Amino acid sequence: MVSQEEIKSLYETELKPQLAGMEKMRKFVKRWRRLAIASGIVAFLFLSNCSTAVEIIGGIVFIAGAIYSSFKAYGTYKKYHKQFKNEVVRKVVQLINPAYQYNPDKHIELYEYHKAAIFRPKAERFNGDDLIVGKIDKTPFKFSELKTEYKTTRTDSDGNTVTEWNTIFKGLFFLAEFNKNIEGQTFIFPEKDSGLTNIFGKEKAKSKDFGELVKLENPEFEKIFSVYGTSQQEARYILTPVLMEAIVNIYKTYGLTMYFSFKGENVFCAIPFSRNLFEPNIKKSGVNYSDVEEMYVLFTLIETIIKELNLNTRIWTKD
Amino acid sequence: MSTLLIIVLAAVVILFVGVISMYNGLIRRRNEVENAFGGMDVQLKKRYDLIPNLIATVKQYATHEKELLTKVTEMRAQATSGKLSNEEKVALDNQISAGMQGIMVAVENYPDLKANENFMNLQRTLNEVESQISAARRTYNAVITLYNNGIQTFPQNTIAGMMNMQRKEVFVIPETERQNVDVKSLF
Prior knowledge:
The structure holds two protein chains of two kinds. Chain A is α+β, with helices and mostly antiparallel strands. Chain A has helices at residues 4-48, 53-96, 110-116, 219-224, 232-238, 241-254, 289-308; strands spanning 101-103, 125-136, 139-155, 161-177, 185-190, 212-214, 225-229, 259-263, 266-272. In chain A, 45% of the residues lie in helices and 24% in strands. Chain A has a nine-stranded antiparallel β-sheet. The two termini of chain A are 24 Å apart. Chain B has helices spanning 3-61, 66-79, 86-107, 111-115, 117-152, 156-162, 175-178, 183-186. Chain A binds chain B through residues 180, 215-217, 232-234, 236-237, 240, 313, 315-317, and chain B through 36, 39, 123-125, 127-128, 131-132, 134-136, 138-139, 141-143, 183, 186-187.
């Protein structure tokens, strides 16, 4: 793993000039986007009160203006976005490990998400980006940003049917090869966020979907996580005392909400994030180290998971 | 019917239902203990099955370890005879674990054996079984703790007393096994 200093020096020597060169584009997008919004508002004011010919014509002119500015802003934004991913994110990925493959338009597959089975509502809309595929020592892994949603329909007060999309999961979805053979499935959920216990700390009926509750011996681990699984013994076969401690360490270091699932060949990990990752921000200057640093931290997180979970130790029957 | 009679009847019914549910709960816990012990037994059996193979392979190279190998073979024969109580099984299993570890340490002196592919496969399988045994032991301990909590807390302890349910001991790992296995030295 490269050090933070190396990332900083890459930023200073290569990324900073690159981003500075792209600043013009970003400002262009920002300007035209503002113009589009302003024209839209003016057009609305004209048309909401359209009694005279002047107001109607004015409205139409400003609508046209808003559409034109939007096109301008969007076209350049797409270029800026593409350049950011291909030249900035890609360079960071390559510095971290030249063997990692980065694909800005792909994501974790739906079947992989289903196999993890961490989130129960059926995903009706599924998208994501920034797929990174690699291998650390003996352990192949991949991760991407992912967003899954389900649809609800309701009837509003006027009797119209309203469709709403509800987010199931949004964030980083990671999977790696696990070093032991697994027959059933085991889940680790954050104690607070899983919503599987009632106010008395008793298991709700829906927790049955994930199997039996597995009470483990590490009190610190039990305070942060709850474990469910198809087999008490297999859950303990996977979650050795060392592994529990490692997961507690990862949690303490990064302070993130984490969901794990172990099935078949794989360990899956879902980490919710409310913001978009690996994305340029139009509003603030693109020339800043914090974006690059965030990417670096995410990579260290993935490496830490693989190392702490000892996924490279292959002393069991699985090679 | 007087109100008092209804109240008394209701109290009796509630008491009856309470006793039944406690009784069932205790039976369930006792069965879980048996089930967990069964799970462990399966894993121990897997290890017993591995021992003859391991010993045959080690014997070819490690000519000076005859005594140790014979001892482990004997213990295995005793364990698979089917005449042991659960407590005896556990005690014998601890001895076998120590014996197996002794073999693995002895293997260090025979580089040819360590490089033998058959031996390496056996070692992997053994590691696998050992992890499963340790998981099974932890499951057993968790279930025993639930069982002991059940029979020792009020009011279940009164029923448990009538059912003659005794406190069971959790697994204690012998001192020799507490040391961490140095993975590097195994390969």
